[in-house]
Amino acid sequence: MERGGGERGGDRDRGERERYVYGVNPVLEALRAHAERVERLFTAEGQLAAKAAAEIFSRARDSGIRVERVPRERLAAMADGGVHQGIIAELRGFEYVDVSDLLEAAEESGRPPLLVVLDGIQDPHNFGAIIRSAHALGAHGVIIAKDRAVPVTGVVAKASAGAVEHCPIARVVNLSRTLEELKEAGVWIAAADPDSNEPLWRARLDGPLAVVVGAEGAGVREGVLKHCDFRLGIPMLGQVGSLNASVSAAILLYEAARQRGARPVAGS
Questions:
Q1: Contacts of residue 266, Cβ cutoff 8 Å, sequence gap at least 6
Q2: Which of the residues 56, 98, 143, 168 has an alpha carbon 20 to 30 A from that of 48?
């Protein structure tokens, strides 16, 4: 069955208040991806590894970014207890995109759209890990809801190992309406469902696809499930009946990448 090209898009939310990104990899990826969004860097004497410091401070100098040396206690407070590795970047508010931007990026890539839709993910570590897998496995972006979902924070950036600076994220008011808009644009919707008897490898995942993943415990809400074309299960042999949300997302994305004949990027 073919779908028409209905109106696409989401609710554009261009930015929030400034945010802190901490840890060597997240800070480096922020500098590499868009140094213009970095307001300043904070570091503590003797805490940053020499190799990392060389690239970080070189990029900061080239971009005219101010570097402030602060007490270790202040770094710890700014990272809210997270592992900061001696470096924190203050960035402008995260810039979300429209769903239509994700579809346009897919078109420009010459590959069928591959999107990740998150329903009610509130754990920042899960969110960050999903972003990391989405970027690594060729997804064109992630879609979250404005309500009942964690936004992009420093914890999310750290958990994503900096992938959040490269993976576009759209934030929408209504997930169900967004799924219908995606279907009008020719995208098939597959939900991760532990109760499904359809193993993921039996489904065709090589075409335009959006994978919907729900929160741990609750899973994808029934009101969202009814907008999905099919439900996919991940057969398991152990006694535990379900997987962590980020693990489920990674497995589904890997199968989609496998079916699409994914090839590693040179130099990765």
A1: none
A2: 168
